[in-house]
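dumping the sequnces here before i forget
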Amino acid sequence: MKLGQTPSQTVGPYFAYGLTPAQYGYAYRSAYGTVLAEARTPGEPIVLTGRVLDGDGKPVDDAMIEIRHADARGRYVESSEQVEITGFSGFGRCGTGTDRDNRFRFETIKPGSVAGQAPHIDVIVTMRGILSHAFTRIYFEDEAAANARDEVLASVPAERRATLIARREALPGRTAYHFDIRMQGPQETVFFDL
Amino acid sequence: MGDNISIYISKALVKARWLMKRDLPPPSLSPRDWSAHPAYVHPAYQSTVRRGPTKPLIPLKRALQELAAPVYGHDAIGPLDHDLTRNAAMNGAPLGERIAVTGRVMDEDGRPVPHALVEIWQANAAGRYVHKVDQHSAPLDPNFLGAGRSLTDKDGRYRFLTIKPGAYPWGNHPNAWRPNHIHFSLFGQYFASRLVTQMYFPGDPLLALDPIYQSAPEGARERLISRLVFDAAAPGFALGYEFDIILRGARETPMEGRK
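..and the predicted 3d for all of it:
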């Protein structure tokens, strides 16, 4: 007989000192932070920023974004030993409550292609008012050829694909991408049943 | 000769089954059971109305659902991280009723999920969160942060010592008070088996009135209520509550072809 899955509940408004304490200035170590890669990590350093917008288009100041992606060669991190060797953790977590414009901001490296897919970042979105977290994916504007061949993007209705593409931004000395997550509305971000 | 081969094969099968049971993560992840989880938009909980996605989710093919959970560093867990009665003590012990909270993290077949990082956070005994935006007038406790983490052992068991959290008012509707609860966050073995949830206490009259608890479907929401278990207690120190957590596990027919 199967056991029933434990239901999801909202992360609520007060997660910061438990899940992102260092980012919010609480005296407690964070298990995961906003910097995924070190200067020595092979690959192209990138900054990823974005906002979470509610149904009124208003930036959400109490969302938590988690990202997971492969390294520059398309391999996922599988052990803490690997993290020590490469300086790449493969996973990051950021709340939207510390930035003036309620952006999330990660410092990482651009992922390589995994198993024929276009380079992408897997994302978990949660916040007060989200009872079950949502999964989405970030693709890159400057990978148009790879995006055109990507099976997951192809499975998304053509008119909604643009919601999954991060915009490349000119930032002095570093490649930056911006990705807004729209929870509702005509441009609602595509969320996956993962 | 034939006998030798069949013995060899049966030994290999036993070994393969043993490996599957004991060491390897399930080869294919079962889907999120939407009959157990709340809908994105649950109007009785007002914040969902402008925040919950409204368009149908896009299915992702199965092989892409098997991304492993993030790794954590060897130093991820401090020696007092699981003991909220001590991990933020400044000049004494926190006020309130001490409790032990323990349970097993398992998949739907009852297989333990070992070495899983479990993170918790909660209000203090007065119903006040340390979080800077909590405006409730109940007092902070200088000896209590209300955050902790623990790794599950080989049987999937975690254990915390903490203070029973108080109820607190919130702005959802007139006289809205959240039942006593502890927030839980964990991944299990997969990125996709991520779970953020809340543990409640048995017999709490606020549960019937709480739109967040009530958002989980009837027949599933009861799984969020811990049990008073004397075996889980710290004798003479703290009562024990048990809260088992069931994550998505292997499909019933893991060998079927992947789409």
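Chain B has a mean pLDDT of 88.
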